[in-house]
Design goal:
4 helices; globular; mainly alpha; about 90 residues
Length: about 90
């Protein structure tokens, strides 16, 4: 589990670095969102990595619009995971 998490997080970090170099290429941003979503499904430790990435974006002065866009994309992608954690298979609260 931790090896797989490391793979997802390293891939996401590389995708984020490439996107910062060339913000007009949205495929890097899509790759980042997909890799972070896969990491969230692997382990909740990913939340710390997301915070570090967003802090880095804030320090790099990429812009508030970019940070909010990424935050919204990752949050929407993880919403199903959170819903699954709150409810059992039969629909009863956990």
């Amino acid at each position: 589990m931790y090896s797989l998490l490391g793979l997802w997080l390293i891939g996401a970090t590389i995708a984020l670095a490439y996107w910062i170099r060339r913000p007009q290429r949205t495929r890097y941003l899509v790759a980042y969102v997909l890799l972070m979503t896969a990491a969230f499904y692997t382990h909740y430790f990913t939340a710390l990595c997301v915070l570090c990435h967003w802090l880095y974006l804030g320090l790099m002065s990429v812009g508030l619009y970019a940070i909010v866009s990424i935050a919204m994309l990752v949050t929407c992608a993880v919403a199903a995971w959170v819903g699954g954690m709150l409810y059992k298979e039969d629909g009863a609260p956990a």
